[in-house]
Design brief:
By secondary structure, the protein is mainly α. 68% of the residues lie in helices and 0% in strands. It contains 8 helices and no strands. The radius of gyration is 15 Å and the shape is globular. 32% of the residues are buried.
């Protein structure tokens, strides 16, 4: 997709939206290759000298640093879905969305949820956007108790 083209939903691609997509790619690659996310990030930088948006780096580092609590929240509130049973792309979208929702005060809660839903619309199954919206919406509702 060209950088100045709208996404399939018709929404423009912001720099942060692109950064989320790149972070998702890096986290997905790390999981598939069974390497650390930071190793995958370093490999991307070294291979072809890719310039990685600073926000992509923030996302990868944030999701990695908070992985244990993020996965615990997702596991607890996903209602019948284990992390292992979720499609890998959904799991990673949810991790990014949860990190933005709970640990990044620069991103409004509604934006964190809607951006995650948008990624699910573009990259996953027909059911995924509703699942991502429902789970992140639940975390948003109980955010004060999660961070207490």
């Amino acid at each position: 997709m060209a950088s100045n083209q709208p996404s399939p939903s018709g929404k423009p691609n912001s720099a942060r939206s692109k950064a989320r997509r790149r972070a998702l790619d890096i986290l997905f690659e790390a999981e598939q290759r069974e390497v650390s996310a930071m190793s995958a990030l370093t490999a991307r930088r070294e291979k072809a000298g890719q310039i990685i948006n600073p926000y992509s780096v923030d996302l990868v580092e944030g999701v990695t640093a908070m992985a244990e609590s993020i996965d615990e929240f997702l596991q607890t509130y996903s209602q019948g879905w284990t992390l292992e049973r979720m499609p890998a792309v959904d799991r990673i979208i949810l991790r990014i969305g949860t990190w933005e929702l709970l640990y990044n005060d620069d991103v409004p809660d509604g934006v964190a949820v809607s951006e995650a839903v948008e990624l699910a619309k573009v990259l996953s199954t027909d059911e995924s956007p509703q699942f991502v919206n429902g789970l992140l919406g639940r975390l948003q509702q109980i955010k004060p108790t999660l961070l207490a």
